[in-house]
From TrEMBL:
One Gene Ontology biological process: D-xylose metabolic process
GO cellular component terms listed in the entry, alphabetical order: cytoplasm
Pathway: Nucleotide-sugar biosynthesis; UDP-alpha-D-xylose biosynthesis; UDP-alpha-D-xylose from UDP-alpha-D-glucuronate: step 1/1
Primary localization: cytoplasm
The protein's name: UDP-glucuronate decarboxylase
Top-level lineage group: Eukaryota
Molecular function terms, GO-annotated: NAD+ binding; UDP-glucuronate decarboxylase activity
PANTHER family named among the record's database cross-references: UDP-GLUCURONATE DECARBOXYLASE, UDP-GLUCURONIC ACID DECARBOXYLASE-RELATED
Cofactor: NAD(+)
Catalytic activities: UDP-alpha-D-glucuronate + H(+) = UDP-alpha-D-xylose + CO2
Residue ranges, annotated region (Disordered): 1-24
Entry's localization field: Cytoplasm
EC numbers, comma separated: 4.1.1.35
Length: 347
């Protein structure tokens, strides 16, 4: 074995060389330029992001998820793929791993689920984001946070621009999520200013599409599942509250552009098409079954009365705008829900 000189001039044995890597390392799958971590990658948006990132043969994708609202089923097509890895991990615990980019999505997103265990939700947002920022700092990775339009609370400015500071109840039942995301944004910018971490912050507006949990509790999945089961569509009162719905493929495209671009954000990613919940129910009825009943039910506290993104910034900086119209997106989602619910379409 070759000898080397130590700093004091003594001759020392050089350490044993590591064994050569497996020949597979030189197959096209292993020549990754980018190793990407997706926290929450077993969830609805995360699994679509995995699909898109895996299309690039230069990417290696690692998902860390605790399966609270996500499922291995969403990732089954990638199981065993040499460029893909799935780790059962809770982001409230530190993660030691070497990666180039982090898409930090881990957090329940449906109000039903985030309110189920609010303390866990805020821990996920605060401690989880701190842990992922610590990881980004240790390995020099760029990190993207999926923040939310909920940081604008019940907005008094309409449509919402990124400069609007919001109208959020700090002690309400939604606060674990919206205040949690606001702290997560603060942490991102403090790590950026104090430690020079490369950050990207996306403020995502209501997103829908295939693979949403059937009983997720969010309005689009609720209405579709109810319509296919022949049940009344439950519009929470008054029904005149508005949302703007973005199809998941558009959203994922926006996230990848944001990660690849040079702007830190925060940047709104959403579809400016705005609908009342009654209009959404009527659209679902028309598409699936015009005989369905619409039932007005009680709402939950602090439900935002209006929401619509101003996407001037994403158009200018990311050259991004959504392409899929609500009716087309609902039809694509209907196919997936029919398959999963086992409800055949009668022509
Ligand atoms: N879908 C939307 O309309 C929307 C809008 C705004 C923001 N977002 C954000 O996008 C992200 C993804 O949302 P989604 O709609 O895919 O929701 P989702 O519930 O389908 O996915 C969230 C994923 O995070 C995982 N997770 C939750 N807590 C975790 C923890 N402590 N450790 C590890 N994994 C954990 C879940 O198991 C799940 O796989 C969330 O951060 C959400 O706040 C979503
Ligand atoms: O069955 C239902 C469910 C919900 N709704 C209404 O539909 C609207 C949207 O509710 P959702 O539960 O889908 O989602 P919200 O807009 O309240 O929150 C969402 O906002 C953006 C993201 O961060 C999250 O995915 C989620 O918190 C609300 O006004 C709600 O009252 C119904 O009318 N009927």
């Amino acid at each position: 074995m070759a000898a080397a000189n130590s700093s004091n001039g003594d001759s020392v044995k050089s350490p044993k060389r590591p064994p050569p890597p497996s020949p597979l390392r030189f197959s096209k799958f292993y020549q990754s330029n980018m190793r990407i971590l997706i926290t929450g990658g077993a969830g609805f948006i995360g699994s679509h992001l995995v699909d898109r990132l895996m299309e690039n043969e230069k990417n290696e994708v690692i998902v860390a998820d605790n399966y609270f609202t996500g499922s291995k089923d969403n990732l089954k097509k990638w199981m065993g793929h040499p460029r893909f890895e799935l780790i059962r991990h809770d982001v409230t615990e530190p993660l030691i791993i070497e990666v180039d980019q982090i898409y930090h999505l881990a957090c329940p997103a449906s109000p039903v689920f985030y309110k189920y265990n609010p303390v866990k939700t805020i821990k996920t947002n605060v401690i989880g984001t701190l842990n992922m920022l610590g990881l980004a700092k240790r390995v020099g990775a760029r990190i993207l946070l999926t923040s939310t339009s909920e940081v604008y609370g019940d907005p008094l400015e309409h449509p919402q621009t990124e400069t609007y500071w919001g109208n959020v109840n700090p002690i309400g039942v939604r606060s674990c999520y919206d205040e949690g995301k606001r702290v997560a944004e603060t942490l991102m910018f403090d790590y950026h200013r104090q430690h020079g971490i490369e950050i990207r912050v996306a403020r995502i507006f209501n997103t829908y599409g295939p693979r949403m949990n059937i009983d997720d509790g969010r309005v689009v999945s609720n209405f579709l599942a109810q319509a296919l089961r022949g049940e009344p569509l439950t519009v929470q009162s008054p029904g005149t509250q508005t949302r703007s719905f973005c199809y998941v493929s558009d959203l994922v495209d926006g996230l990848i552009r944001l990660m690849g671009g040079s702007d830190t954000g925060p940047i709104n990613i959403g579809n400016p098409g705005e609908f009342t919940m009654l209009e959404l129910a009527e659209t679902v009825k028309e598409l699936i079954n015009p005989d369905l009943e619409i039932k007005i039910v009680d709402n939950t506290p602090d439900d935002p009365r209006q929401r619509k993104p101003d996407i001037t910034k994403s158009k200018e900086l990311l050259h991004w705008e959504p392409k899929v119209k609500l009716r087309d997106g609902l039809t694509l989602m209907e196919e997936d829900f029919r398959l999963r619910l086992g409800v055949v379409k009668n022509n």
